[in-house]
Records
---
Amino acid sequence: MSDSPGASPGRRQTQPHAGLPSTPQDRYTDLIATALPELHAWSGRPQPDDLAPLPGCPAVVLFVDGNGRPVQLLSTQQLKRLVISRLCRPVEQRRGRADLAEVVRGVRWRPVHCPFEGRLWYYRLARVLHAGEYRKLVAFKPAWFLHVDWRAAAPEIRVTDSVWCEGGAYLGPWPTRSACQQSLDGLRDLFDLCRYPQQVRKAPRGTRCAYAEMGHCDAPCDGSVELAPYVQRCHAAWRFTTGGADEWVAEARQRMSRAADEQAYELAGQLKQQLRFAESWKARWATNVHPTGQLNYLLALPVTRRRAWKLFLFRLGHLVDGPVVADRRVGPDSVAWLREELARATGTDPAVVRMEQTWLFCHLLFNRESAGVMRVHLPSLEVPVDLEQTVTEAVSSLRS
């Protein structure tokens, strides 16, 4: 976590009060007080002595004016150093920046125990305080999923980042759009799925493409065949992605062997190429890629400057901020907290918030930070019988 307002250190911030409430007695007050429970205030232009009581901890920070109105939101690894550098900087060092010390009369903050916790709380505050531009300010970007809506007459498997926001089934995540697109292209090759789904949606009045002319597609788009076999292929492709890859590989090897015995070398070569993609799918993506209903994890992240762990639960797009537990207690305390959380009802975050929290979670999965994160997959949202041992051994391995 850097001393920065968002994704890019030094990004120019919204001017003080711009687009923010004109009085603290409004809908932002409760959010700010809950998210940033610590407060230190002063009168007049601050001097270093006024800021001496501030701790030197990592934190999400909000500068406020004399009436408690928000001025600037930041995150930092060292609270006192940040506040002093922003508010007690000599005139010659400000380099054209706004003189925050003229308006800032207090600081609210939330101590955070790891960079991921800082990103989570910065995001939650930024989406309210900077509603029109918060996605530019956060440090994470969209995550990518495959999506299909089985209610459509001609289902289309497609790439999307709008997870949770539309009806249908999702599978993911992929670290980049191009990786997700590569997976879809491979599925199209394996199951003869249409590369021009907009034409299939027009069936039987769609236009044949070059693949149909070359005999690589049976052209349901123009009515050459019924649509039902194409829909069955879409379901077969989705079964492959959701745990059926091993079965498909076994059948494909048998078909390739028969083709070779029958000297159908072109077909055998095609199957060999498809098998190469299927094995690549299993090796590259099967570990992290799941249907969103199974995309549930217990997370334990190392606490900054302490031998302890910060717990989180990612549950169907909801991120639950958990307790800090000591090294020696991480196993049993993780089990107790997870039991308690799973007994609660699922959160009520809107779909767009679940989408963005999923992006944040996926950023953690694919970030360099992931190497130090303990995570336990919870596909059925149940506490595994061996969870205590699994967690204890995992964090011991990460510490060694």
---
Amino acid sequence: MTLLSIPDLIGRFHPILVHLPIGILLLGCLFQLLTINAKFSGLKPAVPLIYLLGGLGAVFSSVSGYLLSQSGDYDSNMVGIHQWLGISVSVISLSVYSMYKKQAKEVTLNLIAVVLIILITVTGHYGGSLTHGSDYISSALKDEGKGKAAIPPIANVQQAMTYTHMIQPLLQNRCYSCHGAEKQKGKLRLDGKDFILKGGEDGKTLVPGSAEESELIKRLLLPPSNEDHMPPKEKPQLTAEEIALLEWWVKQGADFNKKVADMKQSEQEKAVLLSFQTGAAKKENKLADIPEKEVGQADAAAVDKLKQAGVVVIPVLSSSNYLSASFVTAKASADVLKLLEPLKKQLVWLNLANTALDDKGMLEVAKLDNLIRLNLSRTPVTDKGLALISKVNSLQYVNLVGTKVTATGVEQLKPLKGLNSIYLYQTAVAKDDEAKLKKVFAKVNLDFGGYVVPTLEKDTTEVKPPAAK
């Protein structure tokens, strides 16, 4: 955890400090203009004090604003304009106070009041643009409501360019306001390939080929109440299909130049992609690996208990009652795992990757007899725990990457007739056992990993001198 320096801390008070002098100065300008009418002449003695207080407040706001700008989270050109406008407000406000003391002409004071109102308005506009984007006001006049899809409908999704037609519009409509050209919260920009791959102040945001290690995906899956959840809870949220799209893109290598059709897709992923296609039949707009028969809504109290424990519970489709649960920010303790049982009818996807789930915890997982997708990667689960899910007949996908399971343990899953994928990279399955498992699971996709990418002549290679003898 990085501690803030004193200047950083003071800078973060700018949004709080800036509103007080704005209100004070506008009140001073209003009083000044009202004194044109003799009926309000009684206000005149208060005006210089108001300008003095507002001017001093503007000075403090300018200082804190300058310190905030040093974070590098904002567009430097717009920051420069906003900064000098703010300084101008401070100088003019204090100058007007001095002019009052010298008994300047009323016409001059009235004219300055009008100029100050305009200057405060323009300064505030640039400040709002830095925070919310330059089109913050105008966007309210456009048909861009919160409920609008972030990805425009596509006539033929398989022929679409994955990044240009799908990923980029999604990021533009859900992420650019905080991570675009005008504002880079956490020094992260997502409005271009080089920026995305560069990451932010916390390092890499995207790990091509690994959605589970990509901060971009992790933060999307955090509970909205978590301060690191993205987008912030007050912003439009991504749908389950949009999150699934990003996960698929990252998992397939986060390619910026390929068509959808040129990237590997499971049946479930094809169904997700189809949901973005214009005129796709509603019946087809269902995931291939969720039950065709619909189910009633899950118990809201049970869902809330899981969320309070840090478990991310979301619908697998925005139009479905079937649920996905992810322990990305929760401990897979026995008490928390027991909270899953009331959702056994609705829960079809369960992600326990990178948790301390052990064989004892698998007793609770085995009770979830509607599970279709189960991710146990990099957990302490062994063959003993794997045996417990051999009667979860609905299982189609099991991820065992980085576990200690052996070929003997994997064979215990043979009774599961619906299995179509088992991921076994970095497990205790011996190389000699791979052929045997392929015979046992003749109709199942067994992924043992260990892919080797050939080096081509055009590739850049690093040549090192031989070690000194």
---
Amino acid sequence: MIASVKENVNVAEILQGSGPFGADEVHNLEEALIYGQCVELRQGANALQAEIADGEKSKAKLIRAGVVLYLLGEHALAEPILSKLAGDGLADFFHGQVLVALNRNAEAAKVFEQAAKHGYDAVQCLLFRAGAVRALGHIDDAEALLKQAASSGGGTRAEYCYQMGCILADQGDTYGAVEYFERAIDMNANHQRALFWLAGINASRGNDEDAIRLYERALARPPLHMGAVINLGLLYEDTENYSAAAFCFKRVLDVYPDHQRAMLYLKDIESAHDMYYDEETLRNQARLKQILEIPVTDFELSVRSRNCLQKMGVRNLGDLTRLSEQDLLGGKNFGETSLREIKEMLDSKGLHLGQFVMKEKPRDYGYQESLSPQQQALLNRPVADLNLSVRARKCMSRLGITTLGELVLRNPDELLESKNFGVTSLNEVRAKLTDLGLRLRND
């Protein structure tokens, strides 16, 4: 994330000065953040906040405090300060961006309009206003604003392409959106929000290497978006680049020393860094999973055996390994001959009855026959419905867990054994299941 070192910016001089504060000063603060002067910026921001709390009301101090807090990602702290500077074009423009970050888009749209009236770049304000209107769900109005901006020469700007990409994404045209985001980056290689969007799209498609590269480029310039830093850290961890992952989480802690997720993820990194993963074991597990998914209909069975298995809901070899001899013999018309036939079928694949039989029934919803239709429908829902974080989703994928029913059959220890799955992810899964009235086995 920090490619090189250059001469430090005199942060204190910029933040404590009383002269004009404009684009050049903002650029220098951005450079300070890029080249690792985060602690100095934080100290400067704290000093300005203390002065404001003591009654400082000068425009020079207020605008510096508001902008540096915005660059540090402290939107909730920046907003009340910038709101006091209505009528200054630069302050209004940054205030609008802060309001967007706080999801106060209706207010942001009005503030961007005011920023243009007070001397800030009118076309840029119009483009950002279109983004705020779009975020409110008014797609047609946003398109109209973009057309207005294009007629004023805004169509050649990276921001125009970015906003068009967002509209297409909202309309479900992902491919069209990607094309516009890529155009935005062609026009401005550092367009942060276009890079974020492309990184997110690649991460959702499992293109981790491309996602990492795009997040790195996006985070090369401020403002510092903590969610993106966390996501990049998780992607680094998944690719076993533990030192880079730790750097990301420490970067968050530089700005937010009490950031709970960053602290927990960093703790997970420190413990995971020394873990040894037996690759041969992982390959064997993958092969076993493929075998367990072989349908019983792929084998030549007698009509009696086939009918009995169908009535018992046995679909594949994995289902059979979770049954005992007594379970099968309890089925109607299922006798020793059928049992022997099933054993021979399993033996041909190196399996046996009861191999993965559950030692205990999960509380209230362990076996299919005891479930109500509502319970069955709930447990048959895909695990994707939980909207888990990247790390938790990858754990589900590694363990072959596709439904809520398969998830609740697992106990916490089994999940924690998965690569890069720590206590933070476990608590996330528990919270999501609790919302649905479910729990992990043994919880």
---
Amino acid sequence: MQQKSLSTKDTPGSKSELKAKLTFAGIFIVGVAVVFFIFNLLTHGNFLEWQNIKIILANMVYPSFMAWGMCFLFACGYNDMSWGGVVVLASFATGVFANMYGLVAGLIAGVLVGTVLVFINFCIFAYTKIPSWIASLSLAMIYEAIAVFLYRGKSTKALVEAPMAKELRIFGLLPWSLVVLAVGFVIIYFVYNRTIIGYNIRAIGGNANVSRALGVNVRKTLLWVGLICGLIIGITSFLQESYAGITTVKTGLASILLIFQPLAIALLADILQKKINIIIAVPVCAFLLYAVFNMMTLMHIPSGTLQEALLCLFIIVFAVVGQRGVKEVVK
């Protein structure tokens, strides 16, 4: 039977595809506008006040970076549950070195600690046969133990307890945090979509054996993932410390709570990536998710209990929707 050739209007990147994406974008924007209008009514006009919008924008920046890191992580088919513990240690480094030597030293220290620890994680993933979720849970407990040791140590307690000086926290405040978000978006979008490394990462996530047969060095690519994610988590830690001013110690795997909101953002972005590039979708989803939680706060729905329960429910729903049709087991 003669195969029917694809017409120009059916090919990827054609005008019809562009029209479909623009139509989706229009419907999406209108839908968000309607939802925000309802939120504003429910909160008696407080939701759309500029000061409240600024709060949402300020809260979404550093989780967006961690969610971008998760895009690379999920693209290669791995999980890492230790990132919360890494953020705690890298935030410690940011605060201590910024207070002692200035903002640049704090940035370098936070990025360096984040990069080294996540790279160590991926060395373990690449060179052992331990499932990544098991290895990362063990690593999370190790990082938590190190954080407790630093927090209780006689020579380190005062250093890690001290809040980051207010004048050093400019990148946790608007508009500078949005400038960092914009610069990070451009770089991460390019690496994920326009480089051989980004292509190889997505390839091994699709099928590592086929990728290996086609000449992709799977182990080397995983180490690249560790390096890229480490840099992103280091920047996340710097931004988190700049925003919060201080980081508290997490024990008993409580550090995993730090990844839940970025995880929900990444999963929602994964659902939308059929219509929007996933790197673009991340900050959009971050804004929407934090808008929902902000609305719940304005309606006096308690955080720490019901809001976190709803967050876990969102994660389950997003994961179920996102994993439809996926037959492989998560590594």
